[in-house]
Amino acid sequence: MFYKTFAYSFNQMGGQMMEYRQRKWIVVAARLLIVAITALLTTPRVNAAVSTQTTRQPAAFRAPATSQTLAVQVPNSQPKQGFIINHQSVALFEQIPDNYLTAAREMGVLFSDRSVGQNIHQALNCLTAKSWETSSASCRRDYYDAGWNWKVFTGADRSKGLVPARILFDPDPDKYSRTNWTFEFKAGSWSELTQDFIQVLAPAYIDSKDVLSYQFGYLNVSEGSDIVDPTTGFFADNADKYDVYDLEAYIAQHPDKVFVFWTISLARGIGTQASTDFNNQLRAYALEHDKILFDMADIVAHTDQGVACYDNRDGVEYCSKKGKCENHPDDGQELPAICQDYTTETDGGHLGSVSGAKIRIAKAFWVMMARVAGWDGSVTSSVTPSSTVEPISAPISALGATEIPLQK
To answer: How far is CA 308 from CA 11, 59, 159, 219, 339, in A?
Structure first.
């Protein structure tokens, strides 16, 4: 667990957690009593009464989870209008109609993460430059040979056709203005990040933003993390942690806002099994509960040519420009990981030294926001941008409880 970095004090937080746990178990006990009385007076069927303070269903009312599945019966708190943004969505960036770009940039947006989120924040700024040649050097870096050497590409390189396509873009300070889009750096365990989003971050922006989200980073799936545990993880109904049930309860209180779910960022070697399990779990959850999912993991785990990338436990040596090397033995598994094309790190997954992933994610982010504004993804969309933040794309699944696979 990481030390808390939130604005409130440790003692205050402890008091909030104790009060939360007491309230939570009182609600559970009351519901169990109602169920028992109902069973005696009417039928053996269990009715999950909804508290006036929460829309959650306690664990006692759910089918028991196994090592292979996790029962998730969180009520859907948003309209049935979800969609998924993945590596195939990047190509839609140049096709976004101007009216949907306008609608997207006029929305108030909040997204939060730690250092990888800072990379994305910088990437969105790349698109606001006056020209590609005058954009920040961090927007124009990439590998240039088979020895994994990289450099800052220039306007002269572009005129000669030497710039890799994945870092090419046509910026516009007005067209891609993200003045209304705010990034907040946050660090902590997955439970702490969820608690902070519910109690601090989202409430601070709920009146000024239309679209709100936060993301877990690959450090949240390092060795020892319980994020995918069927009884203590993010998709479990915990008495002593903040999880998806708490998140859904908060979302249900704000039906006029759009909440985006993110897959976890990927590294070359940190937490690959846990990240694979969590991301598969979240994709299934998004489909079954009709959520908007920004599948960042899928974007960084595919090259710009669409080739899938896997972890660095492959027996292939990699040495960075600074001379740091890794040559982990092949473990016989192929777990999705950030492509070496997108990071200069041996085991990590930051997007700073080379720009390919940053630019592709920034483009995908704009595609997502255009979709939130009502664009259906087609070039000749005739639908007028929505006057509200409610996405109007077709639903991707039916509402209801589902069994979410924990493993591939």
So the answer is: 46, 37, 30, 22, 8
Provide the strand spans (E) within 89-175. 109-113, 141-143, 150-152
Side chain identity, residue 249: A
Say if residues 211 and 109 touch (Cβ distance below 8 Å). Answer: yes
pTM: 0.76
Cβ-proximal residues to 273 (8 Å cutoff; 6+ apart), any chain: 335
Q: What is the DSSP letter of 310?
A: B
**Token pair recorded at residue 10:** 């440790």
Contact 205, 182 (CB under 8 A): yes
pLDDT computed for residue 346 by the predictor:
87
Residue 30: predicted pLDDT: 47
Structure token digits, residue 307: 């080739």
Q: How far is CA 9 from CA 4, 15, 19, 20, 246, in A?
A: 9, 10, 16, 16, 21
Are the beta carbons of 356 and 304 closer than 8 angstroms? yes
250: left (phi over 0), alpha (psi -120 to 50) or beta: alpha
What distance in Å separates the CA atoms of residue 90 and residue 363, rounded to the nearest whole number?
6
Please tell me what DSSP assigns to residue 198.
Answer: I
User: What values do phi and psi take at 261, rounded to 5?
Assistant: -95, 145
Average pLDDT of the chain is 79
Over the range 253-272, which residues count as b (16 or more CB within 10 Å of their CB) and which as e? eeeebbbbbbbbbbbbbbbb
Q: How far is CA 281 from CA 28, 71, 284, in A?
A: 26, 11, 5
CB 386 within 8 A of CB 103: yes
User: Count of alpha carbons within 13 Å of 47, Cβ hemisphere only?
Assistant: 14
Q: What is the mean pLDDT of residues 183-194?
A: 94
Give mean pLDDT, residues 175-194: 95
Nearest to 235 by CA among 402, 386, 18, 16: 402
Strands (E), 5-48: none
Cα–Cα distance between 308 and 83 in angstroms, integer? 22
Give the whole-number percent of the chain exceeding pLDDT 70.
Answer: 73
Residue type, 16: Q
